[in-house]
Design brief:
Blueprint: E1 4-5, H1 7-12, E2 22-23, H2 25-33, E3 42-43, H3 48-55, E4 59-62, E5 68-71, E6 80-87, E7 94-103, E8 106-115, E9 123-126, E10 131-144, E11 147-151, E12 154-159, E13 162-175, E14 180-183, E15 187-189
Parallel strand pairs: 1-4
Antiparallel strand pairs: 2-4, 3-6, 5-6, 6-7, 7-8, 9-10, 10-13, 11-12, 13-14, 13-15
């Protein structure tokens, strides 16, 4: 049977072509092995039947912010991984944020945070605040109307308008002194 691409993962993270690579099942198992207390975890937004297809090699899973974000979260120059997983029944899964730190080529457990049922958004990296963020799905708009001044049939002044959307994110920031992540108060983030 031909491999199937999980279109929902692409749709959640920016459309076709947004994924630069695909998750390997082996890589996911390496991450999950660092969190043995989680029984039968699977990537977030992937039902158990989809996970079974992935295990049989009949599904390719894009590495998108809907499930995986790779960045240097602790400032050591190594690529760390933040992973959204679910476990339990498809109808009411328990959702978790896992962070795996790459320390000199060895993966180490960085964070396991249980998320509430409303935490259904994607992962993001806020470089300005050096934060790993979880998009809460709440939005607010900042708008400015366009202006055009016409005098004697001549445009004397024009000003472009805009509509910007801020996202409410729940941030996690690495504390290098305590060598752990700290959850901070949600804030409004404007995507670049």
């Amino acid at each position: 049977m031909a491999a199937v691409t999980l279109a929902a993962g692409v749709a959640l993270s920016g459309g076709p072509g947004a994924a630069e690579r695909y998750w390997s099942l082996e890589e996911f198992h390496r991450v999950a092995a660092l969190f043995p207390e989680l029984r039968s975890p699977r990537p977030a937004n992937l039902k158990r039947a989809g996970y079974a297809l992935w295990e049989r090699g009949e599904l390719r899973l894009p590495a998108t912010p809907a499930t995986l974000l790779e960045a240097d979260f602790d400032g050591d120059g190594e690529r760390d991984r933040a992973v959204l997983v679910e476990n339990g029944p498809d109808e009411k899964p328990k959702r978790h944020l896992l962070v795996v730190m790459d320390v000199s080529g060895v993966w180490r457990r960085g964070l396991r945070q249980r998320l509430d049922a409303r935490s259904t958004g994607d992962l993001l990296r806020d470089e300005a605040r050096r934060a790993l963020g979880l998009d809460t799905g709440k939005r607010r708009r900042a708008t400015h109307p366009a202006r055009l001044v016409v005098e004697d049939a001549v445009v004397t002044h024009s000003e472009a308008g805009f509509v910007l959307e801020d996202w409410l994110v729940s941030p996690f920031v690495w504390n290098p002194f305590q060598r752990r992540f700290e959850r901070r108060e949600p804030y409004w983030y404007r995507p670049p």
